Amino acid sequence: MAAQRKHLVKDFNHFITCYVCKGYLIKPTTVTECLHTFCKSCIVQHFEDSNDCPKCGIQVHETNPLEMLRLDNTLEEIIFKLVPGLREREEQQEIEFWKKNKSKENGDEDGPRSKKPRMDDDDEEGGDQDYHRSDPQIAICLDCLRNNGQMGENIVKGLMKKFIRCSTRVTVGTIKKFLSLKLKLPSSYELDVLCNGEIMGKDHTMEFIYMTRWRLRGENAYPMVLEYRPRIDFG
């Protein structure tokens, strides 16, 4: 009877490593157009600057390649079983990452020690620790509304990637902050966000706007289009 051949983990590296970062696949995410798989963070970051697959160069989508990504949970479990300790190391790194970033948000540059009570408070309230990842999602197109001769036109430009997907609980105020960051606007610069030509209040959620403004266009009007422009001072 022939002895069974033992395989080393490195024998499978070609199948379980990311083409972009060269490390083991973390949250393996497959491009449905070409079936190449990358770390989720690697491929999402790549699509910030390109619509092409980083491995084969095929155009994934003309405008929104993120729509063509699918998580591969089965492959993730296989990798965790093949590589001892990888799951534990990744979970620990993720915990440390969120602690570090939460500390910076709270103005604590010395680390997570002083913010532990804040975490406990969040847990008691149900918290937003998952940053609404489990919420219903909505696709939105953010269009720059241009009026001839309007002040601020030279500052407010169209987004290179104008299609986004976000939680239905996201407010117009959050969309404005997102636009300001992407467009690198001065902190004092104000934007109006409109739907169907009507200025939306900063506390309106995407769900509210969809149900009360956008849905009236019919089921085929998808994604929801929000327009933005420099705020007009009528005073």
Task: Report on this structure.
- The chain is α+β, with helices and mostly antiparallel strands.
- It is 30% helix and 16% strand.
- The chain has helices at residues 13-16, 40-46, 73-82, 86-105, 116-124, 172-183, 206-214, and strands at 28-31, 37-39, 69-71, 137-144, 163-167, 191-195, 198-199, 224-230.
- The protein has a five-stranded mixed β-sheet with strand order 5-4-8-6-7.
- A hairpin with a 5-residue loop joins strand 1 (28-31) and strand 2 (37-39).
- The chain is elongated, with a radius of gyration of 22 Å.
- The N and C termini lie far apart (91 Å).
- Residues 109-131 have low confidence and may be disordered.
Summarize the structure.
This protein has 235 residues and is of the alpha+beta class.
Features:
16% strand, three-stranded antiparallel β-sheet, 235 residues, alpha+beta
**Shape verdict:** elongated
Strand order of the largest sheet: 5-4-8-6-7
| Share of helical residues | 25-40%
Query: Low-confidence spans: pLDDT under 50, at least 5 residues?
Result: 109-131
Determine the structural class based on helices, strands and strand pairing. alpha+beta
N- and C-termini, Cα separation: 91 Å
- Mean pLDDT, all residues: 78
Summed up, the helix count is 7
Order of helices and strands: HEEHEHHHEEHEEHE
Total strands: the figure is 8
**What summary fits the major beta sheet?**
5 strands, mixed
Estimated radius of gyration:
22 Å
**What quaternary form is this?**
single chain
What proportion strand?
Answer: 15-25%
